[in-house]
Amino acid sequence: MLTSHRTEDGLRVVVDAETADPKAFFQVLDTAPEVRSYEVLHTDQQGMLLQVETAEHEPRVAARTTGMLPQYPMVLRNGWQTIETIISWERLSSLKTEFEERDVSFEILSISQSVEVTDLLTARQWEVLTEAITRGYYDTPRGCSLTELADALDVNPSAVSGVLHRAEEQIIKSFAAETKQIDSLNPPY
Asked: Where does the signal sequence lie (predicted)?
């Protein structure tokens, strides 16, 4: 599904269909009770482009009710629709409830929380980290010592150490969570 638009009594959907058996595909469209009409916009050896007028199906109503904005393209294969979306935890919970109330079969394949790398650190942490990298503090062997880095930043070494430690903590924990190498970042106590 490339796009869809709500009409007064349903949806208008543009579908890019790939099928080895166009006759069987059209037979499915002709017999599907929710399909009101369709128009073939383009055909070639890879498939066809269609505009389909259809009733708004329960998963779509549930998504709309919770305020989930559709993202395209959506893949429909063998009766399962795969959807990727950006949604808050609250709306995701509401969507799950709506699906259950409407008896919609669903499966969540994965959930990830996107974090912009630039949001991980404070401006001061970025400043100190950038200076440390530029001066070779993280090189092997080190291009500068902690004291030399502190002198360049005109602060004491313990302040630089504290800022770097907090920045490193954020970076390492974020990396571990993103790569799913550990189950939880919460301490076991």
From this structure: none
Q: Are residues 54 and 96 in the same domain?
A: yes
Does residue 186 fall inside a structural domain?
no
- Per the structure, the complete domain to which residue 172 belongs is given by 117-179
* Residue 37: strand pairing partners: 53
Give per-residue pLDDT as tens, 80-99.
888 888 777 888 889 999 99
Examine the pLDDT at 182 and tell me if it is beyond 80.
no
Do 174 and 126 share a structural domain? yes
Do the domain assignments include residue 93? yes
Q: How far apart are CA 160 and CA 137, in angstroms?
A: 12
What is the tally of structural domains in the chain?
2
pTM of the model: 0.54
